[in-house]
Amino acid sequence: MEFGIVELSRLQFAMTAMYHFLFVPLTLGLSILVAIMETVYVMTNRPIWRQMTKFWGLLFGINFALGVATGITMEFQFGMNWSYFSHYVGDIFGAPLALEGLMAFFLEATFVGLFFFGWDKLSKVQHLVVAWLVAIGSNFSALWILIANGWMQNPVGAAFNPMTMRMEMTDFFAVLFNEVAQAKFVHTVSAGYVTAAVFVIGVSAWYLLRERHVELARRSITVAAAFGLASAFSVVLLGDESGYSATHSQKMKLAAMEGMWHTEPAPAPFNLIGIPDQEARETKYALQIPLVMGLIGTRSLTSEIPGIEDLVAQAETRIRSGLIAYDALMMVREDRDATDPAVMATFEQHSADLGFAFLLRKYVDDPRTATEEQIKAAADDTVPTVWPLFWAFRIMVALGFGFIGTMAYFFWRSSFRRMQYPTWALHMAVWMIPAPWIAAEMGWFVAEYGRQPWTVDGVLPTAMSVSALSMTEVGLTLAGFVLFYTVLFIIEMGLMLKYIRKGPFQDVAETDAWVQRHHDRLSGRRNADAIAQPAE
């Protein structure tokens, strides 16, 4: 494939977006875990829980600050690299982004300061409310961002205005309650909760291996394991919901994820593993599980899931319909208010397929002049490269089931084995820390790469969305972002490792005194039980 301005702009946005998402899941999950720990502190008045809240809250704060820095630069790219996209769909896409800033970011940023500096100025209950407002603000940020992204995947509640040549919102609540956006939101935040749980367990396991901060580490594992187990189950169940929504909103993405080249008789089997061959249009050496894909994708035994070949044929039909809409649109633009009502009616009849005609702009300036070969080539362009989607999805799913097993094991040891963990399990927990980030990045790769060649699915091709920039200009900004983000990554890792090695350093004397009293009480009970045992 020729590497041009579109591909370079995509590379830049992918780099910044995936780097930013290194911070997002930990922010989402740690905000909730910290609020839970402070809730236990307020309920029990035990200093160990306040120390836990401050320690994990400090790591949350470092991650939050750097996440904000990377997120802001990412959003600037909509105007810098994707100006036509911003112009074409800004009326819809801009609304949730604006609400994210007004309702979520300001809420989160305002109360983060109170969380860190209000310990001695607020009552326990007031500070607890602040902690939960920080957590709610973090999750609200994700909600509005994912509503915007969900609209790009499933553009509902909007229509093309031939007079302004832009998409315009027709139903805000359809955008808000878009099934893809809602499924993505719950799936993404659950993945963030798992990320934080794995992180807390891994760091706590590192402390236990070195016999440091034992009481804090054991209690942290207990909370994170329970929270993470529920979240890991949610990720799998809600991922199933995302697959179901893709069956009627993004059929090509679903077929590519499964390496399903031909429509299978219902219910379709699931390709557990295999080697997708784009040239031969088949998945070689496929190991199939009967019925599973049909049940996941349609929740029935009788509904078919269309394969890639059938979807390409449908795309070709929609391109031809889009050409009728494009021709009518050119007449509307020429005649404006004097447009023949019959022409407008023709446009309205075929307007849903206008975006497919735009796929031909890759080959010709005027889609109406496209040859049959170019129409077929444009239809073939609707197929993303299958093998990376196929394997990224399976890596994500395999890790998801691994998280369930890990959380279940630590929950069992915490609940029924008095928070005693074997050395091998602690080592495994430490080495597992990067795994949820890998799973999250694979998930976003599937979501975004699987949408290609569209910026807005079925509406605006990626090739039309870019700004009129030169390769040099985009290359220089890409190099600048790589340098800037590398510096931020070094700062992030340095600060996180510094404070993890340092450990909890606040409320040490009070917490140590409570721990000693707690151990004395437990020893007293055991001695009393030992004395009473012979009498029984």
UniProtKB/TrEMBL annotation:
Its EC number is 1.10.3.-. It is an enzyme of class 1 (oxidoreductase). It holds the Pfam family Cyt_bd_oxida_I. The keyword Nucleotidyltransferase does not apply. It is found in: Cell inner membrane. It is a multi-pass membrane protein. InterPro entries: Cyt-d_ubiquinol_oxidase_su_1 (IPR002585). The chain crosses the membrane at residues 20-43, 55-72, 92-117, 129-147, 185-209, 221-239, 391-412, 424-447, 467-491. Its main location: membrane. Keywords: Cell inner membrane, Cell membrane, Electron transport, Heme, Iron, Membrane, Metal-binding, Oxidoreductase, Transmembrane, Transmembrane helix, Transport. PANTHER family: CYTOCHROME BD-I UBIQUINOL OXIDASE SUBUNIT 1, CYTOCHROME D UBIQUINOL OXIDASE. Belongs to the cytochrome ubiquinol oxidase subunit 1 family. This is Cytochrome ubiquinol oxidase subunit I. It comes from Ruixingdingia sedimenti.
